[in-house]
Design brief:
Number of helices: 2
Helix content: under 10%
Structural class: mainly beta
CATH topology of the largest domain: Umud Fragment, subunit A
CATH superfamily of the largest domain: Umud Fragment, subunit A
Strand content: 25-35%
Order of helices and strands: HEEHEEEEEEE
CATH architecture of the largest domain: Ribbon
Strand order of the largest sheet: 3-4-9-5-6-7-8
Largest sheet: 7 strands, antiparallel
Radius of gyration: 18 Å
Distance between the termini: 24 Å
CATH class of the largest domain: Mainly Beta
Number of strands: 9
Shape: globular
Length: about 150
């Protein structure tokens, strides 16, 4: 897996960054029963600011496999990862374990930390003190096509 950091940085208020702004409708869209439509918007959403709030600490990587489908992350989805996030316990992370990268939920158990998949077909991976283990970042967003 190639985990080179995302290095293309746009100043937040540059003319190019403004191209990422799109109308944002604050009213929710019902995914259950229909609700009355509202014909107004409440401002703009700047996708650059939303997806990359800190360009020095955010990178993107593609997911490979189906071990995280329960978390809404599917094969070939694009995930944004924040290297600056603290306290990753319980969060979905990109981690390096003994030289191999993985995308799993980091959970502290009574005995140790574990990398837990979100698919019952895969086992949890316990992390021992003898393992070469590093957290590369916490997943912030998942982007996938329908």
């Amino acid at each position: 897996m190639n985990l080179l950091p995302f290095t293309f940085v746009l100043p937040v208020h540059s003319p190019i960054a403004e191209q990422y702004q799109r109308p944002l409708f604050e009213s929710m869209v019902s995914a259950g029963f229909p609700s009355p439509a509202q014909d107004y918007y409440d401002g703009y959403l700047n996708l650059h600011q939303y997806l990359i709030p800190d360009p020095n600490n955010v990178f993107f990587v593609r997911a490979n496999g189906d071990s995280m489908t329960g978390a809404g992350i599917f094969d070939q989805d694009l995930v944004s990862v924040d290297r600056s996030k603290k306290k990753p316990n319980g969060k979905v992370v990109i981690a390096s374990l003994n030289g191999e990268f993985t995308l799993k939920r980091l959970v502290q158990t009574r005995e140790c930390f574990e990398l837990q998949p979100e698919n019952p077909d895969y086992p949890s991976i316990p992390i021992s003190v003898d393992d070469d283990f590093q957290i590369w970042g916490v997943v912030r967003h998942v982007i996938h096509k329908l």
